[in-house]
Design a protein that fits this description.
Elements lengths: L9 E10 L4 E7 L2 E3 L2 E5 L4 H13 L5 E9 L9 E6 L16 E5 H4 L10 H10 L5 E5 L2
Parallel strand pairs: 1-6, 5-8
Antiparallel strand pairs: 1-2, 1-4, 2-3, 2-7, 5-6
Length: about 140
């Protein structure tokens, strides 16, 4: 007997939109924290592909690309992202002012994230700084949500 659709395992994927030239990232304020928006990916679907589909759907980014780095949650607790995908906004494309669901939404300078206690995941500033400065190696890195 097939598993009911609602009972199939899914991954929560945090979709982080980065404007690389301006070194800023789009976050939403929910439940007292600044976080990237989430999408859901069936367990058999690759999380990066789910993130790209979400970015194209939410922001209309036709040429969005994934960075070679990604984040993975230390624990996949209920309601927390299991994967963080870094989506690069296409150069020259108008940047969105908001994302899916309620806001408020804000473009954060990466340098300002380290001074904001309400940003999640906690290591987001170091993760993005390492990517932008080139010292974070390609691959998946564990983050504490």
């Amino acid at each position: 007997m097939p598993t009911p659709r609602s009972a199939r395992p899914h991954w929560a994927v945090a979709v982080l939109l980065l404007d690389r030239p301006a070194e800023q990232v789009l976050l939403s304020y929910r439940h007292g924290r600044w976080t990237p928006p989430l999408t859901c990916a069936p367990a058999r679907t690759a999380c990066p592909q789910a993130a790209l589909r979400a970015a194209r759907h939410w922001w209309g980014l036709p040429r969005a690309q994934l960075a070679a780095v990604a984040g993975a949650a230390r624990t996949a607790a209920l309601g927390l992202p299991a994967h963080l995908a870094l989506v690069l906004a296409p150069a020259g494309y108008p940047l969105p002012l908001c994302g899916p669901g309620p806001g408020p939404w804000r473009w954060w300078p990466v340098a300002a994230l380290q001074h904001e206690p309400g940003v999640r995941p906690r290591e987001l500033a170091a993760f993005l700084d390492g990517y932008l400065q080139g010292w974070l190696p390609d691959g998946t890195h564990t983050l504490c949500w």
